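note to self — DONT lose this again. spent like an hour looking for the file last time. sequence + predicted structure for the chain T wanted, 298 res
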Amino acid sequence: MSVDIAGSLDLVVVGAASRDIAIEDPRGWRLGGAATYCSLTAARLGLRVGVLLGLDAEAAEGAGDELEMLTSAGVTVSIVRLEHGPVFENIERDGHRRQRWLSKSDPVPPPALPEEWRETAAWLLVPVAGEVGEEWAAAVPADSAVGVGWQGTLREFAPDGWVERVAPRQSALLAAAGLVVASVDDLDRGARFKALRPLAPRADIVLTAGEGGGMALCGARLIRYRSPRPEEFVDPTGAGDVFLAALMTAWLLTGDAATPATLGFAAAAGSCAVEGVGLAGVPTRGQVVARLPARRHI
């Protein structure tokens, strides 16, 4: 699919920013969430990006440095004030993540979208806590390129405080998508990859596996890809979101979503992301290109 990116924005990102518990930060948290990571990544990779970003009161008041990071990269930020925003504690064990939740998220509603963004040709819908609802499938133009971060719809907030997996299900967001990305940790180990195809019939479906690379289902074709080894492993937070945004960027620049070249580009971006803490790890285009093998640039 070839995408016309001649408008005022190349890409609109929609989702809520999370506050991720971080005892080493004076605030006790760092700003995170897929919408935050994806918008910064796409901008640093060269796209003109607008983000509709849900923020609770504490994040809106205390996240000035992170929001400045976005705007300095060229992201146009439109804030939706949420009474309740997502708050998570991320626990890494043996290369796998479990999360505890301290707060759920209010919805990010389509009427909050700036009018001048509504005809943008490309969209990333990236809920972290189900805040980007089914109504967003009708809010984007019918002929636009739509990427979906699946993770935020594969979660339930258990009463004991743990975030638990839920089985994939029919969704208007998936039906509208041309690209869907999730981690293997978001799905039950017994889930059959090709059984996901009916849920996203138009999409290239990508499952990431961290340093192990991952695989993509493009129509009936299965593509496996490897991930470059990072120079230093510091913080895995946001690496999957960086991968998604880099793959979306490659789609818009090349006209192809999941190919060996675009998957390699996205994997290189994800491997760069783990070398820094939080949003500081989001790479520039130059860093990603330097991580790629010779003559493999998009």
